[in-house]
Amino acid sequence: MTRRFEGKTGLEPVVEILRAAGYWAYSLYGDDGRWLVACDTEAGRVDVRLGSDGYLVEVWDVSPGLFYDEEDNRRRLVRERLARLTLIRLSETIRRAPMEPGEEFLSDLWWDDNEHGVGARLRLEIPFSASGQLPTLVAMLLEQLNALIARVEERLLD
């Protein structure tokens, strides 16, 4: 399969589209050795890469300090360990669950040891021809990301 776009050049339209919509978008050479477009927003982080036949859009974030109000350090560590185990099960459940219309994305959940909180990522691949819809799509995915993190945190706090 021949890619329609290659490398940084193929992502330049994404930078322009997201900047025109008010996002602070920039090109970045990722840890995986591939170019991506990144945006840091108050609602989460956005990464756009070239996918197999379109753009792979990922939104992700970590909600820090879920158990920081716990005064007993040992109890906080136990709660964090339980959260890690629960997130593994929740992540598997989410991957197997039937998706609702409009939720054709994959998601990941994890416990972030640096931030001491829940991390989540949503992924969706869109065709190159849908690039004009990126700002709307990013806003929708960020909203769904934050709702997912809030639901997971509620479950972990119960």
What does this protein structure show overall?
It is a single chain. The chain is an alpha+beta fold and 158 residues long. The chain has three helices and six strands, in the order αββββαββα. The protein has helices spanning 7-20, 73-96, 134-157, and strands spanning 25-29, 35-41, 44-50, 55-63, 106-112, 117-126. Strands 1-2-3-4-6-5 form a six-stranded antiparallel β-sheet. The N and C termini lie far apart (49 Å).
**What is the average per-residue confidence, as pLDDT, rounded to a whole number?**
87
Main β-sheet, spatial strand arrangement: 1-2-3-4-6-5
What's the number of helices? 3
Q: How many extended strands?
A: 6
Q: Tell me the overall shape.
A: elongated
Percent of residues in beta strands: 25-35%
Helix content: 25-40%
Q: Characterize the largest beta sheet: strand count, sense, and whether it forms a barrel.
A: 6 strands, antiparallel
Given as residue ranges, the uncertain stretches (5+ residues, pLDDT < 50) are: none
Radius of gyration: 17 Å
Q: Termini, distance in Å? A: 49 Å
Task: Please outline the helices and strands.
Blueprint: H1 7-20, E1 25-29, E2 35-41, E3 44-50, E4 55-63, H2 73-96, E5 106-112, E6 117-126, H3 134-157
Antiparallel strand pairs: 1-2, 2-3, 3-4, 4-6, 5-6
What's the gist of this structure?
This protein is an alpha+beta fold. It has helices spanning 7-20, 73-96, 134-157, and strands at residues 25-29, 35-41, 44-50, 55-63, 106-112, 117-126.
Keywords:
158 residues; alpha+beta; six-stranded antiparallel β-sheet; 3 helices
